[in-house]
Amino acid sequence: MDRNLTLGDRLKVRSMIYVASEPIPRFWPMRTFIHHNPLFGLEHLPFEEAVEEGCRLFNGRGYLPRQHYQGYRREGKVDDSALRRYVRRFVEDQAVDLPGIDVDAWLWTLITECSAERLIASHDWLDGEALAAVLRGRSAKLDSRVVIEGLHTLLARKIAHDGPVYANVDRLFGTDIGSTLNDLLVKSCLDFFDEGQSAWQAPGREQGFYFAWKKVAWRNVRFFLRGLHLRELLASSESPEGVIAQILVLLKIPEESWQKYITRQLTRLHGWAGFIRFRSMAKHHYWATRYPADLTDFLAVRMVLGLALLQEAARHHACPGDAEAVQDFVEQDPFAAYLRLELYGGTIMPGWAQRVDDALARRSQRGYEGLALDYIQAKLVHEARQQAQALRELARRVSPTAEEALKTLDPTQIEQFLQILRNWERREGFNWLKAMESHYITDLVRKVHLPESKPEKRPFAQAFFCIDVRSEPMRRHLEALGDYQTLGIAGFFGVPIGYLEYGKGSEVHLCPAVQTPRNLVVEITVELNLEEEPLYGALEHVLHDLKSSVLSPFVAVEAVGLLFSLGLIGKTVAPVTYHEIHQRLHAEKPSTRLLVDKLNAEQADSIIRAVQRAMIVRALGKELGVSRDRVTDDEVRELREIVLGHQEGQNSLARRLGLAAAAEAEFIEKLRTVYRVDRQETSLQMERIGRLGFSIDEQVRYVSQALLSTGLNRNFSRFVLMVAHESQTQNNPYESALDCGACGGGKGLPNARVICAMANKPEVRRRLAENGVVIPDDTWFLPATHNTTTDQIDLYDLDLLPARHLLYLERLRNGLAAATRRTAAERMPTLGATGKLAEDPYAAAAMARRRAHDWSQVRPEWGLSRNLYGIIGGRHLTEGVDLQGRSFLQSYDYRLDPKGRFLENILSAPVVVGEWINLEHYFSTVDVHHFGSGSKAYHNVAGRFGVMTGNQSDLRTGLPIQSIYKDGKPYHEPVRLIALVEAPAPFVLAAVGRLPKVKALIMGGWLRVIVLDPEDDYRALVLEDGEFQVHPDSGRQQRLTLLEASA
Amino acid sequence: MEWIVLLLAAVLLPVFPLSWIFNRLIGSAPGPWGRALAILVLPQLGVLLLYHTGPLALLLLPLSLQRIWLMLVLFTSVFYAFRAVSAREISIWSRLMASSGLTLSWLLVANGAQVHSVALFVLALSLPAALLMIWAGMLSDRMGGAYLGLQGGLATVLPRLSALITLSALALVATPIFPSFFGLLQVFHRLDLAWLWPLLLLLLIWGWSAGRFLQDLLFGIYRGEPMVDLGLGITWAGAVVLFFFALSGLIWSGAWTGI
């Protein structure tokens, strides 16, 4: 049975899996939720084709149901003229002449007045003949010879020979292998991929997913009780590739279909497959390095379980056990196969279900031909009647004579007409989408202000906000309050950093997911106190340890359950007060500094020595009970030299303490292994320290880029705020989805602190001045955060603020607080507050704070829902314009970017991230169950890296319904990102041309692009169907004409 | 004569294998209303037959035969409950579940229960079954059949009808506060401890069956044609019947427990 695979065979299977996994988007752990395009793997295709392919692969839908679009049309959000144009173009392409039928009018009535999701339902038996008969009042009849011929074609389509065997068996026997297989596989994945949620870990995970699972499966009682015979399968080959090939052979899948077969297997649980794909590619992911796994392992486990379940079903239900046997079964009795397919596939007419069920249960020896023919006839009549009824109803709306005209068509013409309608319905969603976008494009072109020359005045403060859509209302309100100038920049401020937070053990990447930071920034506390932990924090750790222990819950509930209930009641009844008390009990985070500057070799060596000495002091205290005051620096130094092997013999401290030689040796060994004071570790640390901080050149470059790419090279104000953003929610696995996407789903404050530290450095400013960017001495860069849930803006590193700036601090704070309240008053009504709240900004701000602390709140804020525009240009375009928090605003001045490099950066990072965010929202909205993640109400956290629906399901990768729907209707309007670039058209085209990926996205229609050309009278060029067209409402001259006309 | 009465009663208060006739009679009744009427009337006729046509036939049997009879009754109950697990057509499911429950009335008879007690017990099971027959007819008018599990999420398109079906099904499987629950408590109350385990098994199967039934009815995503739900009048009528049915159960339980 064993099939010995050569290296070539193995590589072939692996490469098939690699190719098959390409369309599956990677899924990042929820801790750093990355908004991604669910069809990322299909971005090489044009949008429309990719949607069709994605829907087929992931069993999803690509557009909203027609009724939603009709609703948008009633609200005036669809460009009717564009929609009519698309209809006309479609009709012209059909080139079919149907006498008396005004196809244009039919299609227009269909899209605007038909409330059914589909006018032309999918049919098994309906043809023009039958429909024509029913339309003329006769009954539809089917010739039995035609039935037999049609049946074979139908079955070949529905029971594909290269489809998963178990799925075909499920369809024919109602065996439910597919869902059982998914359940077993999900359980296995949960055991292996757990990241610390389970108290008991699965054994042998270091060996990799397949081998660890194989070891457990060998003696798994659960599988044995289910009657699964895995041992023989597991013994068939050593490697996962071998098992996969072996099973494909056993299932008799033709080798040319292996690729397709593997794709179908992997896309069944695409959430898990996406997570494993991410894991296998993430070199820095701690759990992936400790417990390796890839899609080959995943597929091998799936196929072993699938085959075992299939064999069990074959034993108990006498169903076929391989692909050929399935085809034989269908060919031997196609009538029975069809009836089975109808019943177990859920497509049977309900009135016939019991009869067919009874007949199949009796295992009739006489065959099923009679019953099947009767059923098929009944189904044909049903299909014809349903279709005729739907057409008649529509005809009455088209025109008084439309129904009569329909009756005059012969069967071939009816068939053609049905085909036209079917083709239209397949493309209708895309046309609605384009028509909606056309409306919003016109709206934007009309809304943007064209620049006017104004005298330049020094603002009181300038603030850089993230391009995130949630910054737009805050910027608008802040500017409306007085002398504030705001700018938009990606929330990592163009500085990609690896960040090691004080008190945290691992590095996080604060930059877009497409980048890998080279520089590491470490946070160091000013008041270092390593030994003490506040009492409340320690108590909390103990309680949580108790909770996660295996046995303690049996006694812990009675013992400490009451303590937990206090928190429960507090969080529920008075969330804000509870939060304040909780904060007070917790020790405040100490004041910290960031290591921003690069260290030279001497400094690095000194740091390592200091750390090693600290570790030795700690070890002395913990292991030998020797406190710091009993040890001298020289003794520690000597001990260090011995541990590192620079010195030999007994050390003076051991002599003084009277430590035996064995005890001393044991202690030294411990220092090397447990406290990691050894040579190898030292060289590793030196290597890591090489990543620490930024050189002066790098600092100058980053600050210069941040300023010039946003168009700020003069007129600096006293305060320049670098406002990062973060969210604040409770009990929310999607917390990081609300944080900064440009910081890889993290909080952007460290990036703000880093760039401020750089920009405040005299040496950096001197070098900037040499490059023509003169920052006045009284300008101070100040880091801040914008809490998008409460709208609060907090300032940081105020202890570094020069004394002269303190005089203005109160004014700054007042302005920010006022903007907070105004923004909250604008935002809260969209979250269910009454309109009156908008009149009381204080109450609105209080409500926002309450939502942030409310642990039962499923919608603490709307996040990036309703995102629509990405505007790359000066703030003059949108200043004072209410963009309703729907725009990514990236400041840009092409005049400071002669080579187009900044534009390239913007297009290849913020625009791509914006496109991902937009399409995550788009697909989650159009299919909240397949591309979205369903309702939060049923979610459970899985292994600390994802969420599942119920206790086990595929990993839910998209956005929950609460983030994108309101009162059962989409709150997010699903349209593609409309990116407007303010720059000369040839300049933009050249920049795009240098970026193949961005060019593919734009030309493939994954986002819509408008170029607002300042050197061509501010005319707007809109890209549609691969061509730029001048928007009729654009241009200064046209604006004036329109204004005059309206006057 | 006693044997004839006993056999006839075993048809109407179904005991295996005569339960087959009972099921055929119900199944062949014309239309949902006819089936509802049949399931209401036939078991009551069985009770009348047992108590009013002479001495109580069952108690005249020798004790050993009585035991065998009661074992057959329990077997019938478990057998029909088990069959109902795989039934997806609503009227068939309710017929099988009713057969499973009605047969338990023999346990009351064997333990000397009064005629009105047995009649009420029978009514407590046959009324929800009759209601389900009617709801099945209404669902059939809308969908073409009352076969569950083909289209999930009926509750989203037919919320009123689904609510009535759910409540009636719960009433049939002896969910507290419905009379069938108190009726079953009465049976538990009268039985020896040794006879209880098959009843516990029965309860387990009823729960399983009801779980599957409700899962097919309520959960999932509906992808079929739009349908028109019940009118307000019928919904209210059904709700009122179920309300008074539950209320009467509470009063009745008070009566036999002496509260």
Summarize the structure.
Chain A has 1047 residues and is an alpha/beta fold. Among the domains of chain A are: 458-493 and 694-866, no CATH class; 536-589, no CATH class; 599-691, no CATH class. In chain A, the strands form five sheets. A six-stranded mixed β-sheet of chain A has the order 11-10-16-17-18-19, with helices on both faces.
What does this structure look like?
- The complex is a heterodimer of chains A (1047) and B (259).
- Chain A is of the alpha/beta class.
- Among the domains of chain A are: 458-493 and 694-866, no CATH class; 536-589, no CATH class; 599-691, no CATH class.
- Chain A is 53% helix and 9% strand.
- In chain A, helix 24 (471-481) links the parallel strand 1 and strand 2 (484-489).
- Chain B has 259 residues and is an all-alpha fold.
- In chain B, 75% of the residues lie in helices and 0% in strands.
- Chain B contains twelve helices and no strands.
- In chain B, helix 2 runs antiparallel to helix 3 and helix 9 packs parallel to helix 12.
- The model of chain B has no long low-confidence stretch (mean pLDDT 88).
